[in-house]
Amino acid sequence: MLFSSFISRPFRESLCAAVRIISGCFQDVMKELVFLLLVATEASSRSRSSWCEPGCECRGDLKFTICSRTLFTQLPGRVAPSTELLDLSDNLISVIPENSFSKNRKLRVLLLQNNNISVVEDGAFSQLEFLQKLDLSWNQISTLTEGFSMGLALLRELQLTHNRLTSLDSLSFLHLDGLQRLNLTSNAIHTIQVRAFSSMSSLRQLHLQDNRLASLRSGMFSMLRSLEILNLAGNQISDMEVSVFKPLISMTLLNLADNKLSTMFFKTFQSIHTYSTHILLEGNPWNCDCDLQRLFRKLRSVQRLFLDDYYNLTCKAPPVLLDYRLIDVDSELCLAETFTVLIITVTVVITVLATMLMGERKRKKKKKKKHWTQQGELSDESDY
Hints:
The chain is of the alpha/beta class and 384 residues long. The chain contains 4 helices and 20 strands.
């Protein structure tokens, strides 16, 4: 009141009018800004939708494109160049053509599991130089050509479980220099050629369980100096060459459970020089003879080897020990057998020595008799 008393009425009216004008202008400006923002948002939304295939869900500024369970029979044509994760799982895709992802060079994760893929053309992934994970599990892939891995030098993880692969050669994974995890579980692999994994010097995990491998040959795992986990469970392995694991200088876990092993050689595991290696052997049809018991006594005495499931190993032969746990088989029987063998050996040696001694005596007797006969003949001649 005191301040307004010093201001004339006309001036106050002019001031209020000015304030109303300014307020009205501000509101008009705000309305225009809101309108422009809505227009920009709509334009951006339309731009995004033009890069998002119908049926797909695009998130995170088009970095994540989810197209799973959309019944696609072929690869979608509208995938944003900025996409880093593309999920095409659970569809009906059957072919991956050459250069399929030429517009998606920023892809880091590509999920193609659970489709009907039977053909991957050479160079299909050749443009994906930044790809780190590729999942092709649960498909119909039966062969891997040289061009399959072209351009995937930075790939870290490859999932090929539940396909129809039967053999692997030196061209199967030729360009996968940086691969660290390879999962080939549940295929029909019965043959792995020498140096099939030679290009993968960075590989740390190799999963080959539930295939049809019957034997392990030297050179099969050559160059895998970084390998830490080798999973061979659920195959049909009955034979292993002595030096097959020798190149695996970093191996910490070897899984040989559920195979056809009945016996083994100590040198096969003695050649593993890793500081600490855990070995799984349960589910094999062990022939629990004395040789096998001696083998496991030796293995358990090696400080760097750990037989994690030793107490679960069961016998399938001889018949008298069927389903016995190896740990429960009386080792004294083997000591008795060893003692018996020793007695037999000593008896044989004594018999041989006695025979040789008797033979030597007979030989000397014969010689002496012959000497006497000759002397008698000489004496008779002298009488004449």
